[in-house]
Amino acid sequence: MSSIREVARRSGVSVATVSRVFNTPEVVSQQTRQLVLDVAAEIGYLPNESARTLATKKSNMVGLVWDTDHRRPGWRHPFLQDILVALKSALSAHGLHLLMLAPDQSPGQSRFLRAVQRHNVDGVVIIDNGSRDPAVLALADAGVPCVALDLRFTGPACTYITSDNAGGGRLAAQHLIERGHRRIATITGPLPTYPAVERLEGFCQVLSEAGLELAGSPAGDWYLESGYTAMKELLSTDPRPTAVFAAGDEMAVGALRAADEAGLRVPADVAIVGFDDIEVAALIPPGLTTVAQDKTGIGTAAAESIMSMLTDATTPLAPIILPTSLIIRGSS
Amino acid sequence: MSSIREVARRSGVSVATVSRVFNTPEVVSQQTRQLVLDVAAEIGYLPNESARTLATKKSNMVGLVWDTDHRRPGWRHPFLQDILVALKSALSAHGLHLLMLAPDQSPGQSRFLRAVQRHNVDGVVIIDNGSRDPAVLALADAGVPCVALDLRFTGPACTYITSDNAGGGRLAAQHLIERGHRRIATITGPLPTYPAVERLEGFCQVLSEAGLELAGSPAGDWYLESGYTAMKELLSTDPRPTAVFAAGDEMAVGALRAADEAGLRVPADVAIVGFDDIEVAALIPPGLTTVAQDKTGIGTAAAESIMSMLTDATTPLAPIILPTSLIIRGSS
DNA sequence: TACGGTCTTGAAACCGGTTACATAGGGGCG
DNA sequence: CGCCCCTATGTAACCGGTTTCAAGACCGTA
C-alpha cells in the first residue's frame, strides 16, 4: 500500500510537503505541487483516513443515531428513506460520510457517547421516536454537535429540525372549516410527544378562533390500528363529527377503513385529513388529503446544520422549523 | 483524553499489557487483568478506533453502497428500512458499524473503491438498482468482500442475497390457476433486470405446465404509473384477462387503479396479484394479494454473509436464495 | 544443580498521517 | 551592502494503538 512517505521519496520532497499538497495546496509552489500530484496519481496514492483522523481528531464522519432496537420493535420512521437520501447527498457533496452508530456493547447511559468517542465522529444526527433516551441525551451533555429530527433537543452544541407542526394543524383546521364543516374532531398522536401536542394546539387554535369546539379528540399512537379504533369511537357519538383530522397518515388510513366499514362515504359523509404525506396517502382511494412535511428539506437542513456546527462549534444554532403544506386529495 | 499509555502508567504496567487486556485477555494473568480493567473503568478509557484501524488495517466497519444519486433520481428500494434495521442490528451484535459510503469526489471507475480503501472498510453491502455500475464492479475486482442484494454479483470474495424470484412467480401462477382463472396476463418489470426475468420465467413455467398461454405481458418499470398504463393496455384487449400478475406491488397498485377506473370490480371481474409485500399492500382496499419477500431475512443474511467473509475470506460463499410466500388478501 | 518449557510481561518498532518549529533562499528597502 | 520579511521546504515529534521479539520468573525433571 502506498503511503505518504513513498510519495515523498519518489518525488524527492519531504512528507510534510506531500501532506501540504493535499491539505493546504496554496502554500506549496506550483511546480512542486504538480510534481507531487503526478507522482501520487501514478502510484495511486490515497491518504489513509484513519491516520488522518488519529492526527487531527476529525474523522469526516457524521454519526447517525437511529434507534431501532429497543422500544416498540418495529417502529418505522414514516419517511426515513427520503431523509436519508437528502442527508446523505448533502453530506457527500462536502466529503462527509455517514456512520450508522451501533450503540456500544456494554450498557449504560453512554452507549452512544462511547461509540462517538471511539470513532472520533465529528457530529451526530439523531432520528428518534420522540421520547428522550438518556443515552441520547448524554451526547448533548458531552458537547457533541448534535442535530435532532422531530425532537426538541437542546444543549450547548445542539439544535433540531422539525416541521411546523402547529402550522400544519392550523392548515388542516382552516381547510375543514372552509369546506363548511362545523362538527370537527381529531385523532391525536401520543400526547406527551411534541409533534402530537403541537399539531393539536394549532388545530384547536383555529377552531376556537372560528368559535368551534372540538367534537372529540381520542388519542392514538401513530399506528394504523389506533386510528381505526379512535375513528370507531368517534363515529359512535351522536351527532357524529362530519370531519376528522388524524394527526398522522397511518392513523388516517385506519380512520378511512373504519369509515368504510361503517358504511360511510368519504368525503360525502365524513371528511378525513391526515398529516405527513406518506407514500400511501396518494395511493389509497379516494386519495388522502394531508398536511405534507418537507422530507427532503428536513434531510438537507439536517446536513447543513451539522456542517455549520462543524465549521463553527461556538455560535449556537437556531432550530429550523420547516413549513408544511396542505395537499388536497379526495378524502375532504 | 485518556490514552492507553495513561492507563499503563496508572496501573504500573506496560502499554503492551494494557493492549492485551482488551484484545487477548486470556494471555494476561488474572490479577493484572483486573487491575487494568479497574483503572480503565475509573478514568473512562476507551480504545481509539482510528489508532486501532491504523495498526491492524481492520476498521470494524462495513460499507453500505447505496446508490442514491445518479440514475432515476428518486428511486426507492421498496423496503430499504426493513433491510437496514435487520442489517444494522445483526452487525451491531458483533460490534460492527455500518458506514454509508459517499462515493469519492473525483469521478472515475473507482469512486467507491477509493472510499473503501481510504477508510479501511472491511467489507461492503451493495444495495443497487439491478443494473451494473462499473464503479461498483470495481469493488469486486479489487477483492473487497462484497454482498449484493437483488443483484447477481460474483467475484473472488463476492456473493449475493436474493429472494426466490422464480419460485415467487410460480406461487403467483399456481394461486391464480387454483382460483380457476384461464386467461391470465402479467405485467413484468424492466426486462434486462434479473428479478423481472426470473419472476416472469417462474410464472410462465407453471402456466405452460397447466397448458395455458400468457394473455399478454406488457413491461413496466416497477413504478405505479407503468402498472397503470400496462393494465389499461391489458384491459383493452378482447377478451380481456381475468387475472393479472404484476411483478411488483407498486405496479399492482397502479393496476388496481386502472381496473377501478374501468369500472371493474376486483377480484370479481379481474384478480390482481403483486410481488414484494410493501406496506401499502395491506392498507389498500381490497387488500393486495402478493408474493412476500422476507425483508428481515434478507438483511440478516446479508449481515451473516459479510461477517463470514470477514472471518474467512478464502472460501467462496454460495449465494443465498430466500423463499417467498404468498399472502392472500382481497384482490384475488 | 542444571536444563528446558510455560507463563507473563516489557521494550521498541511500526501503522500513516499532521504540524510546530527551524531553516534556507530571494526580494525590497534604507 | 546589510537587514528584514516572506515564501517554500524540511526535520522531527506526535496522535494512540498493535505486535514482534526478548527476557525474567517459576515449574518440574533428570
TrEMBL record, chains A, B:
<dbReference type="Pfam" id="PF00356">
    <property type="entry name" value="LacI"/>
</dbReference>
<dbReference type="Pfam" id="PF13377">
    <property type="entry name" value="Peripla_BP_3"/>
</dbReference>
<protein>
    <submittedName>
        <fullName>LacI family transcriptional regulator</fullName>
    </submittedName>
</protein>
<dbReference type="InterPro" id="IPR028082">
    <property type="entry name" value="Peripla_BP_I"/>
</dbReference>
<dbReference type="InterPro" id="IPR010982">
    <property type="entry name" value="Lambda_DNA-bd_dom_sf"/>
</dbReference>
<keyword id="KW-0805">Transcription regulation</keyword>
<keyword id="KW-0238">DNA-binding</keyword>
<dbReference type="InterPro" id="IPR000843">
    <property type="entry name" value="HTH_LacI"/>
</dbReference>
<dbReference type="InterPro" id="IPR046335">
    <property type="entry name" value="LacI/GalR-like_sensor"/>
</dbReference>
<feature type="domain" description="HTH lacI-type">
    <location>
        <begin position="2"/>
        <end position="56"/>
    </location>
</feature>
<dbReference type="GO" id="GO:0000976">
    <property type="term" value="F:transcription cis-regulatory region binding"/>
</dbReference>
<keyword id="KW-0804">Transcription</keyword>
<dbReference type="GO" id="GO:0003700">
    <property type="term" value="F:DNA-binding transcription factor activity"/>
</dbReference>
